[in-house]
């Protein structure tokens, strides 16, 4: 029998409330760790302030301690936000109500995490994925790709992923949620969603994964011939 004709057993039903509680419990555990990390960062910052006042602390060490404190505080705020919205978010499909606020929309976590993200720019280089990588985080990147697809195609792909996990979702609903996220991300005041002026825009709606990879590699090899 051809492998594609083999019938797979139906996935067990998902208890939404149980999954929701598991999600909240995990976030609460992370929250406790984040609170402890913030206390440690603030204790280090107090020591650094004392040493700087005594003239025995280098300015770069002061900056590092300040960044660590801000990152710890931002992580704590992000976790608190996640926990507060656990009750209105489906833990199995990612479907959210109009009241949902993404952590990515909040200026404070983004500002603190931006310093950490930028610190990863070092030899031999990296591949960064995100909605503002080419415009905010790494604006001087040598190769920029803005990968997109129609809302309908992204909804179809998401629907397929959920079905493969044994979950149910409404295709039209997924498409609407994707459109809403795009609208919100494009209109936000902090790092709005848009392609960088020098980015290659690839609409993958009618492309296979291999075709997308070939286009990206072609762009990279054109700018960096050493890439195989």
Question: What does the model show?
Answer:
With 228 residues, this protein is mainly alpha-helical. The chain folds into two domains: 1-119, no CATH class; 124-228, Rossmann fold, CATH 3.40.50. The chain is 56% helix and 4% strand. The protein has seven helices and two strands, in the order ααααβααβα. The protein has helices spanning 16-53, 59-84, 107-118, 133-137, 151-164, 171-187, 209-223, and strands at residues 145-148, 200-203. The protein has a two-stranded parallel sheet with strand order 1-2. Helix 1 (16-53) packs antiparallel against helix 2 (59-84) and helix 5 (151-164) packs across helix 6 (171-187). The protein is globular, with a radius of gyration of 22 Å. The chain starts with 15 loop residues before the first helix and ends in a 5-residue tail after the last helix. The relative contact order is 0.09.
